[in-house]
Write a structure and sequence with these properties.
The protein is elongated. With about 1300 residues, it is α+β, with helices and mostly antiparallel strands. The protein is built from 44 helices and 36 strands. A hairpin with a 2-residue loop joins strand 18 and strand 19. The strands form 7 sheets. It has a 9-stranded mixed beta sheet, with helices on both faces. It is about 40% helix and about 15% strand.
Length: about 1300
């Protein structure tokens, strides 16, 4: 359904509008009373077409009329105060006859058809925090209150049209100058440093550098100790400064753009930054809006303007905006006067509440009457509007915030290991300090005669016999501890964080460049919108997918219709008769325009429509297609010939129907194909060409679709002066408001039979996977119309709680409808979806579908995409109360032998590993495919009397859980979450039907907060934003529903099938690379620190070093950093062909084979051995020689660099040119740097390398260190891979030995890294 605000909120100013009848509101009709009589709202919480986001709608429609003393606002406040405990309880809109007093609506404070992501996630997060289970990290919105502030604001903003002085005199509104930059020349240095030192790593560096400046702790040279920190700060400052300079340049260009502003009776150019609220601005075609403006007039005589909002919300389709007909004279007479009362600035770009006072009239203004800053004018010559929000107060600027980033799962594990290394660092420093204290205590009297600790200088010159600064035993021990911290500082791998960022950038570059994930149909390539979680793609256990637009194409095709109880179009799919393809209606003039789309039609239905307007069936068909053509927000646009669609003699052209909803476009195109062509739509009337005859319908009011009512209605006046309401909506909300009695008050058996037949047709459509809508209408008497008009106009001009009041007005006419029929629209699966889902399931990933469609439709799609198989046993949970839901869950668990949440450690581990079969009471294991052609549909819900002990054995069965949104209302609100969790995680497939957007997020949080498994959510619409942001990884589809999901996602792509390659190939590579890189960085730094530790133990626990200051600094910065980055970006264990052919290889990431605690400690043991070899081989080799410490340090520097690089080379799986250059080039660069350092005469190590390099012992020692250090590692790898090979090793061996299947060998070997 369309998600814009009503095109017409009131027609009070129309000349042809009837006079108001002063009729008191009937006390028996409340906001929902006429609906509650027929249980109309029992399922209105559900998301039918899956295209509208959650509506935090006003609570007013849920307040019964018998409680007038309690205002809507107070109810809203009360609900929000108890959001944690009653959140999901508010989601149900249930007015059953048994619980008529318990009227609860999907409530909130604003009507948001496509609500911003921050709002949805903020509410979900707060509602799901429970004290008994600490949740994992979530993305809460910090702007929740701001989004609601406008609705609670009782002091509206007053805009005096064309009087900016008076407008800004009292309120002092902000100017139109914008600023997106962070710094100025004065604030750059302090502010940038303040921001940078928010990173704890930089604070750690700063403390270490500061300690090294103290004379007792000056281990390194003071300049050398400052170099790493200053280098990082300087590079970061240059980057930040360049980015901010670009922002300054962009702001300057933006603020100095010019627009035409009404000045002294004429439109003259004026810079954007000087425009202020209240001024009248004129915009020409293809120009950008400088601020938020209310339309006063356009070049179109009907006041229509087309805008593109891509700069604002990313959507490329054109939107329609309208100037009120009452302001036309203002433009023609150049008399710009009036007063606009509007809401205070807020971030909600999908709602605007205001009224205009003009000529003693109050004219309602809504979202369709405002154009926002950043939008572009298209297909319209010019528009004129008055500025209501300017500069930083525009909705575009208020929404220019950066969403909170997510953290990687591996990074959280890495932080755990960092704590272990921190503990080890403290232990080593304590050992050194303690050893020094013991040594000083034993040698207190001999310190003047011993090296390292002489109290006096023994040298020549002035310093001879001068006393050292000896601070006493206690302080010397303390200073020794601090000096050790400085020496061993790189044990904490601060450089690892920088390395990870560089590696992620490189990985993202190759993912974006993967041509196999380019969607040629939409021209969209893969997008990496978050660089923090690349490796998480290799550990996904659960995928939560939307259906419409994600699994399906969201390109709707009208297939079947049920009219007056008769089904049409069942054979359309096989009809190929060219006579049934509509190009120009046979009864229309040859000059009439035709729709651009050509579709097949049903010959019987077409013949019925050509008959005279007599008989119930013919009249129903007539009203049916009139409703399809009129009850929508689609705009006909001429794409050829004269732009005037109503011109009878214009040349032949095509009509392009512009609409934000594919459903509406499909229905309008279908109506046009059957001879009911929508040719003109304005704010006041609609023109429909019916079989060549033009009918003008005056639009008296339009009630837009929302997820509370689940329907849309339009009140129109026909040429014969009769008034009728035309309604379409979801079957759950429509069937319950149909009339059951005739005008005489007697039971209408014929209409009841039509309803029954139509329900059967709806079930048939759903089973075929079609999306359904029900169509109805009703004649309004003068009394009914007058009452509705009074309530409607009051609601339309209300500045507070307008959405709730409009729903109350809609309830007056949306009742006792006559059923006209139903529609079935096909939404075909995307290419490659079944194959992708099958591969993902083989990889050990569970795919859950969360959709707002009917249960039958979701099941049909599940079967067609191979999510469901005929051998699965289906558990259907459709509960209407807490007690019933509890009973259904308990019966299901008992029947299938599923244990409760109180599991042992082994059971929890099995659950995390995906082995759900061990959670059953039997020892049987779940089958990998369908085992029994038996489907348990309804066994749980319908056959409760079956004795569990006599039930069939389901221990080996594959289970599929199908649950509806109404049940989730009770389950997620009450203490039934654990029951649902046990049941859902024991099933191979879970399908949630009729779920609202926040329920989608609740399901994701159910898994995310109770397991350590990684979750991924994928969707294409605004209603998927909360789910996408709740999951560990969010993927947006660039589809037909706009780009809100893309803008809120971490990754974006064109089709669902690309998810297979993203996870199985890039996810696997990224995880394996990053996991190894983290372990290697731990090893690389630890082996260097331990080598220094052994040296200090042999120098009386002193803080002396054999290595130069610059060698210590360059070790992590130059000598060993480049190979780590290159391998982290380019290395791969298996080709993409192998990974796609064997999806089970993905389970290596699910089992944490690349990084776990065991591997960490094995790596540390290997590090310990290599450090011992590094120190003691040269130690024993030169033990009786006269080698000085600087020569020994030179040997250790060369040896450790070669050792760690050879260690890395042993584990590289894919050698390319850049890998060779990185590995061997780093060793060569180390020699070069050492030669340069040893060539500086002022350094104490001057000339050492030249003397050492001439010695054979030197080179033999280096070779011996490498062989002895790596030999245990090499032997362990050989033994392990020979006797206990992993799946990856087996597959790699098959690759190398060319033992792969023929279809893999025949594929091209070229690959994307």
């Amino acid at each position: 359904m369309s998600t814009v605000d009503p095109l017409l909120l009131s027609s009070s100013g129309s000349a042809d509008s009837p006079s108001k009848h002063t009729a008191p509101a009937r006390p028996s009709v409340g906001s929902l009373n006429c609906l509650c009589r027929a249980d109309s709202c029992s399922s209105s919480v559900y998301e039918d077409c899956d295209t509208a986001s959650v509506n935090f709608a006003d609570e007013g429609d849920a307040i019964p009329r018998h409680c007038p003393e309690e205002s809507d606002v107070s109810r809203v406040a009360e609900r929000f105060q108890s959001a944690d405990s009653h959140f999901f309880h508010r989601l149900s809109v249930e007015c059953s006859q048994k619980e008529r007093q318990r009227k609860i609506s999907w409530g909130g404070v604003m009507e948001m058809q496509r609500s911003p992501s921050s709002l949805e996630v903020g509410v979900v997060s707060s509602s799901k925090e429970k004290p008994n289970r600490p949740p994992r990290g979530r993305n809460k919105s910090s702007h929740f209150e701001d989004l609601f502030s406008s609705e609670q604001e009782h002091d509206p903003r007053l805009i005096h049209i064309n009087d900016p002085v008076r407008t800004n005199d009292r309120y002092e509104f902000t100017g139109n100058e914008i600023r997106t930059s962070k710094y100025t020349l004065i604030t750059f240095l302090p502010k940038n440093l303040f921001i940078q030192f928010h990173r704890l790593a930089y604070v750690y560096f700063l403390v270490i550098a500061a300690l090294n400046q103290l004379p007792p702790l000056a281990v390194f040279g003071r300049t050398a100790s400052l170099f790493p920190l200053l280098f990082v700060l300087f590079v970061t400052a240059i980057k930040d400064g360049y980015e901010d300079w670009r922002r300054h340049r962009s702001d300057r260009n933006e603020n100095n753009r010019e627009a035409l502003v009404l000045q002294h009776g004429d439109f003259r150019s004026k810079k954007w930054k000087h425009i202020c609220a209240g001024e009248v601005v004129k915009i020409h075609s293809n120009e950008t809006m400088p601020c938020d403006m209310v339309l006063l007039g356009t070049s179109d005589p009907n006041g229509i303007a087309y805008i593109q909002t891509m700069n604002l919300d990313g959507e490329s389709n054109l939107k329609t905006r309208y100037a009120r007909q009452e302001t036309v004279t203002m433009i023609s007479h150049s008399s710009y006067l009036g007063l606009i009362k509007c809401e205070q600035p807020n971030r909600n770009i999908y709602e605007f509440t205001a009224t205009m006072e003009l000529n003693n009239q109050r004219i309602p203004l809504g979202q369709s009457n405002i154009v926002l800053r950043g939008c572009q004018l298209k297909n319209t010559e010019w528009i004129i509007g008055v500025v209501v929000y300017a500069g930083q107060e525009t909705k575009a600027m208020l929404n220019s915030t950066i969403s909170r980033s997510k953290s990687s799962n591996l990074e959280s594990y890495m932080n755990r290991e960092t704590l272990w290394l921190s503990a080890f660092l403290l232990i080593t420093c304590s050992v050194v300090a303690t050893g020094m204290g013991v040594w000083l205590f034993k040698n207190t009297k001999n310190l003047d005669a011993l090296p390292y600790y002489r109290r006096k200088y023994f040298t020549f010159g002035r310093e001879n016999r001068k006393d050292f600064e000896f601070y006493g035993l206690a302080l010397e021990i303390f200073f020794s501890f601090l000096s050790s911290v400085i020496i061993f500082q790189i044990m904490i791998p601060i450089s690892l964080y920088i390395t990870m960022e560089l590696v992620r950038v490189g990985q993202s570059y190759f993912m974006i460049g993967d041509t196999r994930m380019y969607d040629s149909s939409s021209g969209s390539r893969f997008q990496c919108r978050s660089l923090n979680i690349n490796e998480d793609l290799g550990q996904i256990r659960y995928i939560f997918s939307d259906k419409t637009g994600t699994l399906t194409q969201n390109k709707m095709e009208f297939q079947q219709a049920s009219i007056y109880g008769r089904n049409y179009g069942s054979s359309l799919q096989v009809t190929s008769d060219s006579s049934h393809e509509i190009t120009i209606a046979e009864s229309s003039s040859q000059h009439d325009r035709k729709p651009k789309s050509e579709i097949n039609v049903d010959a019987l239905l077409l013949a019925l429509l050509k008959q005279p307007l007599f008989g119930e069936e013919r009249l129903a068909a007539h009203d049916f297609f009139l409703t399809l053509a009129a009850c929508n927000t689609v705009i006909p646009v001429s794409t050829g010939g004269s732009p005037d669609l109503t011109n009878e003699v214009s040349e032949v052209g095509a009509i392009d129907y512009q609409g934000e909803s594919p459903d509406e476009q499909a229905l309008v195109i279908a109506a046009s194909a059957y001879g009911y062509k929508l040719v003109e739509r304005t704010t006041g009337h609609i023109v429909i060409d019916v079989q060549g005859e033009r009918i003008r319908l005056d639009v008296l009011g339009l009630h837009e679709f929302d997820s509370v009512r689940k329907r849309m209605s339009v009140v129109v006046r026909f040429p014969d002066d009769t008034v009728k309401v035309l309604v379409k909506g979801a079957d759950t909300s429509m069937l319950s408001i149909l009339r059951t009695r005739n005008h005489d008050g007697l039971f209408d058996s014929l209409h009841a039979k039509t309803i029954e037949t139509t329900e059967n047709h709806l079930s048939s459509y759903s089973s075929e996977g079609l999306r359904t809508l029900v169509i109805g209408s009703k004649y309004l008497s003068n009394e009914e119309f007058s009452e509705w008009q009074e309530r409607y106009e009051e609601a339309s001009t209300s500045m507070t709680e307008r959405s709730a009041k409009l729903r109350q007005a809609a309830a007056l006419v949306e009742c006792d409808l006559t059923l006209l029929g139903a529609t079935g629209i096909e939404d075909k699966l995307q290419d490659g979806v079944p194959e992708a889902i099958e591969s993902l399931r083989q990889a050990g990933i569970k795919v859950w579908v969360l959709t707002g469609d009917k249960q039958e439709t979701a099941i049909s799609i599940g079967l067609s995409c191979r999510l469901l198989t005929q051998g699965m046993h289906s558990i259907i949970i459709n509960g209407s109360s807490e007690i019933e839901c509890r009973s259904l869950l308990a019966d299901a668990k008992a029947k299938f032998g599923i244990k409760s949440a109180d599991l042992g450690k082994q059971d929890v581990e099995d659950l995390h590993n995906g082995d759900v079969s061990k959670l059953r009471s039997s020892n049987g294991q779940a089958s990998e495919s369908g085992i029994q052609n038996f489907q348990l549909t309804g066994v749980i819900a319908n056959d409760k009397s079956v004795n569990i002990e006599e039930s069939p054995n389901f221990d080996d069965a594959e289970l599929a859980l199908i649950i509806d949104g109404n049940s989730l209302v009770y389950i997620l609100e009450k203490d039934l979450e654990s029951e649902l969790f046990d049941l859902a995680t024991s099933c191979k497939v879970v399908i949630c039907c009729r779920v609202a957007p926040l329920q989608k997020a609740g399901i994701v949080d159910l898994i995310k907060s109770r397991t350590s498994d990684m979750t991924l959510a994928i969707g294409d619409g605004a209603n998927d934003v909360s789910m996408i942001q709740m999951a560990d990884v969010g993927v947006g589809i660039c589809g037909q529903e706009g780009r809100q999901a893309v803008m809120a996602s971490d990754f974006a792509m064109g089709q669902f099938c690309f998810l297979k390659r993203l996870l199985l190939v890039h996810g696997h590579w990224n995880y394996q690379r990053m996991a190894y890189m983290i372990l290697y960085n731990f090893y690389r730094n630890a082996v260097f620190v331990l080598m220094l530790f052994w040296y200090i133990l042999h120098t009386a626990y002193s803080a002396t070093l054999a290595l130069t200051d610059w060698s210590s600094v360059f070790y992590s910065l130059i000598y060993t950093s480049v190979p780590t980055v290159v391998v982290g970006i380019l290395d791969k264990d298996l080709s993409h062909n192998t990974l796609l052919y064997y999806p089970r290889l993905y389970e290596a990431g699910l089992r944490n084979e690349g990084y776990n605690m065991t591997l960490f400690w094995i790596t540390m043991l290997d590090t310990l051995w290599q450090s011992l070899v590094l120190f003691y081989v040269p130690f024993f080799t030169y033990n009786i020689s006269t080698m000085d410490i600087w020569s020994m340090g030179s040997l250790w520097t060369i040896a450790v660099v070669i050792l760690v690089n050879i260690h890395l080379a042993m584990d590289i799986q894919r050698w390319v040119l850049i890998t060779h250059l990185a590995i061997w080039g780093s060793i060569a660069a180390t020699f070069l740097c050492m030669v340069l350092i040893d060539s500086i005469p002022i350094f104490p190590n001057y000339g050492t390398l030249y003397n050492m390099a001439a010695s054979r012992t030197y080179w033999l020692s280096v070779c011996l260190i490498i062989v002895l250090g790596l030999l245990p590692r090499f032997l362990c790898k050989v033994i392990y891979e020979t006797f206990w090979p992993s799946d990856i090793q087996i597959a790699r061996e098959a690759e190398l030995l060319k033992k792969l299947p023929q279809q893999l060998r025949s594929r091209p070997e070229s690959d994307i890294s």
